[in-house]
Amino acid sequence: MTMRGNKIRPSMSLDCQIRPGGALANRLASAAEAASLIRNGMTVAVGGYTSAGYPKAVPAELARRQAGGEEMSLNLISGSLVGQIDEMLASLIARRTPMLESPTLRRAANARRMVYVEQQIAKLPRLLWSGAFGRIDWAVIEVLGFTGEGWLVPSSSVGLLPQLVEQAEGLIIEVNQAQPAGLAGLADIYRPGRPPRQPIPLLHPVHRFGEPFVRVDPEKIKAVVLTNQPDQARPNPSLSEPLARALDHLMNFLEMESARHWGGTLPPVQTGVGQLAGGLVAALGQSRFRCLKFFCGILGEEHLELLASGRVAAASSSAIQMTPRVTEIIRTKGHEMSEVLVLRNQEITNDAETAARLGLLSINSGLEADIYGNVNASHIAGSHVVNGLGGGANFAQNSGLSVLVLPSANAEMTISHIVPMVPHVDIGEHDVDILVTDQGLADLRGRDEVERAEEVITRCAHPAYRDMLRDYLKRAMASVGGHHPQLPDEAFAWHRRLKETGAMSL
């Protein structure tokens, strides 16, 4: 290997070959032929991360087989959300982990017609190594192509791809010719290994210390399918008015925090997915901050627009959402952006060690938060899963500054998103430093439980619910006292009233 600055680059060629050569040439197959290797009852892992770089042709063939009357039931594992696959295969998935992104699959999980093993994606590598999900019969993964040596060149995501290649009994490779060639070389694959392990040598978001390909045992590859289907990615939805106001509060806070602690700059920023992530990146683009740095699970269209404009000094992620605009940017500027853009395996992106070392500014959202700062990010009324936990809790726990942003209430004012007690906890109160809503910002650092509650109620709760929350806290302190006063019967009555009357208010 050769060293260039702080970047380790392989000395071998990275020229990406669409068609496999050598012994793999006779393994070219149609999607139907490849899918025929997968049989009822098997465990299948699929590549892709947050609906980027996922296999498309083979899952579609599996769905066609079941639609044609074949009995088919599969256990499905992925690195994160893979919405298109979830929807295609919803009726034949018997077990699913770690997340789900399909209304059909969500209904099946909540009705317990399917076993859903929700899991923090940061813990997936360890669980896979331990055999917690059993034998992986097949891994179906998408790549951009092969190097001259036969290694795999990732397409728009890396995710769990290196580990799946290692642990699956057999591999089905989809080579997607619709993915832009500019993605070649963006990946930096590093396997930290099993504990006890050496420190991950990450010193900067785009510090390269791995390889831009995935090594593979060629004997495991049983079929190679050529495809030409772009990712089905859409731009993030428009920012709602409450979240826009919340981001105004947050940006004002970041200006002051930057001046006090960060020398006028920002630490690397971790953003989640959806409208909050898109709105936050747009707000950063309109701010005075320059040389922005991102260290995320997923980069969206807003991130790539900023990259193309030269406002971003570093962006590291496990995947890129390939909207038509992003595809255009990668096609035209991918090679020149390779110095500031890196795709990593999620063993690095979602690791507690890297989040802590970089001192991330972690900004995430949730369904609701309680007056002490506990966050429910995954289950409506504490019972019905939406998409799953994902990586937010890991980032919140290990970042330099953890921020939680959400609206104070729904548009009809029937639901308060600040409640006495959340019915399901994904992010604990001690991992939330800053809570922000459209009403204001609560800095919870250095405060005890009651001080936190008073701050959240005063600054973050909607006026329509503020007096109810104050009254609840006052009576809880008088009735039970203690360090963390709670009246569980009354607290959960808020959700019961919503179910029975259509509103949380009295």
What do you see in this structure?
The model is unreliable at 1-13 (pLDDT under 50). The protein is of the alpha/beta class and 506 residues long. It has 16 helices and 24 strands. Helix 7 (241-261) crosses helix 8, helix 9 runs parallel beside helix 10 and helix 14 packs antiparallel against helix 15 (463-479). The strands form 6 sheets. Strands 3, 4, 5, 6, 7, 8, 9 and 11 form an 8-stranded mixed beta sheet that branches. It has a 5-stranded mixed beta sheet with strand order 12-16-21-23-24. It has helices spanning 31-35, 57-67, 83-89, 103-110, 124-130, 161-167, 241-261, 275-285, 301-309, 324-333, 346-349, 352-358, 392-398, 449-460, 463-479, 488-501, and strands spanning 2-4, 7-9, 43-46, 74-77, 93-97, 115-116, 138-146, 152-154, 170-176, 187-188, 221-227, 269-271, 292-295, 312-317, 341-344, 361-364, 368-370, 375-376, 379-380, 384-385, 401-405, 418-419, 434-437, 440-443. It folds into 2 domains: 2-227, Glutaconate Coenzyme A-transferase; 241-462, Glutaconate Coenzyme A-transferase (3-Layer(aba) Sandwich).
